[in-house]
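Now for today's protein:

——
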Amino acid sequence: MNEKRSSVHGEWSSGLIFILAATGSAVGLGNLWRFPYLVGENGGSAFVILYLACILLVGLPIIIGEVTIGRKGRRSPINSLRLIAREEGLNQKWALVGWMGVIAGFLILSFYSVVGGWSLYYGYEALIGGFAGMTSESAEGMFNGLVGSPSAVLGWHTLFMLIVFGIVASGVKKGLQRAVTLLMPLLFFLLVGLVVYGMTTEGFGDAMTFLATPDFGALDGDTVLAALGQAFFTLSLGMGAIMVYGAYLPQDNSIPVSTGWIVGMDTLTALLAGFAIFPIVFSVGLEPGEGPGLVFQTLPIVFGEITFGAVLGVVFFALLSVAAITSGMSLLEPAVAYLSESFGGGRVKAAAIISALIWLLGAACGLSMNAWSGFHLLPGMTIFNTIEFISSNILLPLGGLFVALFVGWKMRTTTVAAELDTHNHHNLFLLWLWVTRIVAPAAVLFIFLNATGLLSFITGE
């Protein structure tokens, strides 16, 4: 059955808007924060080459699958999977894959909004000149002062959630589309501006040498796992975001072409982040593998020292905030879409209910860093750490795995081929189908086993 249906929430006005929206979902703190330090820790461009291979073998096949499910069902991830399963004569329990994604997005946004709040706070500090004359001690004091203050954490977390709620509650065209039309060009403008500045610094040559000279001797099993994990998580796979955005994609737009652009722009953003950050890092004699503390505890010191540092600090943390907001929108949308579809009451009411619940859980995550730091849900893990572990290491990989199995093995090949419109590219379709059926599930299973610690248990390491 190849029935064409319309989304009850509306559609993007063009394929370009879908690409911007999905890229906004994919581009987040993982691109601007995690990717550069992974490159720094794992052999420079050797890691980039390995990462690109993982993107092609894991990320691209699964994102095509998610968009295919979304546009075919034209509903929230839960209802799209339920609808398609019924039409394909499959067990209705496949809707649980949609539930997995919606719950994962809900959980991730609860702690992501806390970190998004940090970005807003640092942007404010940069704006008022808070980085001037900063030392390592004062930078550490600023970060610890923020994280250790219940009122500060809750205040910035609240502001972030209010921004995301306001956008999502306004609907697909008036909210999400208007936001990505404004925010995504702004994100790229800010990022390119930082790259241009990086080209004027003394460390630009060293940064280019580092990024362009592969050190394959630095690659090992851990590096492969890091590249696999980054390739999977950077594209927002397994959390229902890409699937629900795919539900709003106009029917006359090519899914393979659109997803190719998304993967390309997401990867370009991550590389540009490296071109922006590493010249600054090398200019002041820092190590490229500084790790997660690079953004919130190291760069403020740099911005306090270098020429035009005050302006650069505002630009950088504005960039980080925009990336966090666009990702936050996509994390909230699947649950809001499901609630408004299934129970009525309007989109604003659904967004308010879901946002309030996420705010409450996010407040618990924020308080687990200070007032509730002694409370552990799992042994040795705070509320923040527990929710991050469950969502990132269990729900997301399992969601991606089951999406690949559903599209690759359970949906009729003719149904998938019709949605992808592959009549002129039959051989490419067969290649994608093989990778989706065999390579991608094996790789995601590998990610899951490693993330949960089961891989070490199996191998005895």
User: Anything to note?
Assistant: The mean pLDDT is 90. Residues 116 and 247 are 26 Å apart (CA to CA). The two ends are 49 Å apart (CA to CA). The chain has 19 helices and no strands.
